[in-house]
Amino acid sequence: MGGGIIGSEMAASLSANGAAVTMLFPEEEICARAFPPDLARLITEYCRDKGVTIWSREKLAQLTPRADGVALRTLGGQATVADLVVAGIGIAPSAELAQMAGLDVGDGIQVDAGLRTSDPAIWAAGDVASFVSPALEKRVRVEHEDDALTMGRLAGRAMAGDAATYHHLPFFYSDLFDLGYEAVGELDARHEVACDWRQPFREGIVFLLARGRVRGVLLWNVWGRSRLRGRSSGTSGLPRAEARSPCPTSPKRRRPPDSGPPVSCSTAQRPTRYDHRIRWLGNSLGPSSRGSTAILRAMADLNRPCFACRIVAGELRPAGGIIWRGDGLTVHGLADPCPIPGWLVLTSDRHARALYDLEPGELTAVGPVAARVMRAQRAALGAQHVYAFSICDELLHFHLHLVPRFADTPQRLRARGCFDARPEDALPAWRIVGAAEAVRRAMGSS
């Protein structure tokens, strides 16, 4: 019983060990409350293909012990006899004693950043404790061993006089047959979704956003990355990498076969490399900063005034600086190490992740502004051609990369290859600034 993270993991483990398993849950799909709808449908069909019987949109009506097992009947009229019944249906925090003691109780026992309750002589930890997550900007209560272990250690230190604070990000992981995932932050199917699939619904990274801010990151079947065990690390609250053993039911952590149930992706698909996406998210992440830890740093950055906002506001100055402003748009130099002189970015001044989010005036200005910049790049720099690449979502601002091509541009850096530049391709600052200044002058005279 139960179609969430615990129920699905238990069903997969029992089935993988030869048991005939029936899942019973009230939602339409497995993990429907946590995962985007398309992904939840995929998991449900995947478990069916593995031999699990699915009774969705059902609730238990009667459970009767018998000599040959346990008889179950659902409100919808389904019935079976089972050798074993497992209830993975969540918990309600047992806070009665705390309430009797006069402690502040909401969804669990409320604690401060040091895990102290409203009574300064009492601390609380584990899945009964409700704490404030700075990254999520709200109180949360987490039902997972990672938080229980981490919070218990810090509570013990606090009771011993340590002034440490708890800024741990919720961290989850599970394995379902040959599929595996790790997640940080808040998993909520109601959030907006942005996906970076290498293979749709089989391997990729899913970002969950609310009001333009990253609330959670799901690494779906991404192999060969650093694994996380969330740990408090000073005041940042960011976990650090640590090896994690795989689920014993899937000892080889195999990559799933290419074939699978037909899927239709209604969320954004961007068939690009993870390293490039993660580098753009955090803007300062190198080739060795891959995987969960890198995404967490990027998530922390995005939940402050975002990177593009800071460029537009003048708080950050990319090489080449600001080239042009107007009509809700800004043209500036590339913030990453730049392999092509005159590579510029046209971005919206506000959060608008794609063309469809732009106001009519902004939308009308994009084409003429881009054309004006591209003409200036050709005139001032002698570029043979200027590519325009629109890459959205990860910086929460619409942005158009305007990349010149010169006669001596290496073939591997032409067209889309410019995003796969190597560290040794980075130009010295004087070349970037000189090219940007030439384009700025050309635009001023046009």
Which keywords apply here?
446 residues; alpha+beta; FAD/NAD(P)-binding domain; Enolase-like, domain 1; five-stranded antiparallel beta sheet; 9 helices
Quick structural gist:
The protein has 446 residues and is of the alpha+beta class. 25% of the residues lie in helices and 24% in strands.
What does this molecule look like?
The chain is α+β, with helices and mostly antiparallel strands and 446 residues long. The protein folds into four domains: 78 residues, FAD/NAD(P)-binding domain (3-Layer(bba) Sandwich); 64 residues, FAD/NAD(P)-binding domain, CATH 3.50.50; 116 residues, Enolase-like, domain 1 (2-Layer Sandwich); 139 residues, HIT-like (HIT family, subunit A, 2-Layer Sandwich). Helices cover 25% and strands 24% of the residues. The chain contains nine helices and 21 strands. Strands 10-11-14-13-12 form a five-stranded antiparallel beta sheet. Strand 1, helix 2 and strand 2 form a beta-alpha-beta unit. Helix 8 crosses helix 9. The protein is elongated. The chain starts with a helix and ends with a helix. About 18% of the residues have low confidence.
State the CATH class of the largest domain.
Alpha Beta
DSSP, total strands: 21
**In the residues, how many domains can be counted?**
4
Distance between the termini: 69 Å
Largest sheet features = 5 strands, antiparallel
CATH architecture annotation name of the largest domain? 2-Layer Sandwich
Give the radius of gyration: 26 Å
